[in-house]
Amino acid sequence: MAKQLTNADILTILQVLQDETGKELLNKKIPVKLSYAIKYNLNLITKAYETYEETLKSLANQYGADLTKSGIKAKTQEDQKLINEELTNLLNEKVDIEIHTVPIEVIEKCGEGTYDALSFSEIERIDWLIGEEKEEKTE
């Protein structure tokens, strides 16, 4: 399912899947469809992030600014204002990503049988990939 995400959405998704709870989620025993969807989408989103990061570096270079973990630090206040405007535009830029979704029934299997249960916090981290499964075409 094609989904439009902003670069800000992409940053948020990567942060929540790479924090402590997100890492724990990736190590749990969960249905294979869910595990695949998380890893597949994480790869797609990481590629989109790489494009964002390259553009961020270009923006810093354009103004002769320093790129740090906390953002872009310009040499003048005027440049910083211009950078912040450009950065806002970049964060709001929409990206079409072909998200691999899973039906809610797959997530509901967590906690049953041999699957680990998911906490509310873990489910919140993956709610963006809950949807209808693609129907296979038959001829």
Low-pLDDT segments, ≥5 res = 135-139
- What proportion strand? 5-15%
Oligomer kind: single chain
Give the total of domains. 1
Derived from helix and strand composition plus strand pairing, the structural class reads: mainly alpha
Largest sheet descriptor: 2 strands, antiparallel
For the record, give the distance between the C-alpha atoms at the N and C termini, rounded to a whole number: 21 Å
Question: Roughly what percent helix?
Answer: 55-70%
Number of helices: 6
Kindly state the mean pLDDT as a whole number?
Answer: 89
Radius of gyration, taken over Cα atoms and rounded to an integer in Å:
19 Å
Order of helices and strands: EHHHEEHEHH
Strands across the major sheet, in which order? 1-4
Shape: elongated
- How many β strands by DSSP? 4
Description:
The chain is mainly alpha-helical and 139 residues long. Helices cover 57% and strands 12% of the residues. The protein has one domain (2-129). The protein is built from six helices and four strands; from the N terminus they run βαααββαβαα. The strands form two sheets. Strands 1-4 form a two-stranded antiparallel sheet. Strands 2-3 form a two-stranded antiparallel sheet. The longest helix has 31 residues, at 32-62. The radius of gyration is 19 Å and the shape is elongated.
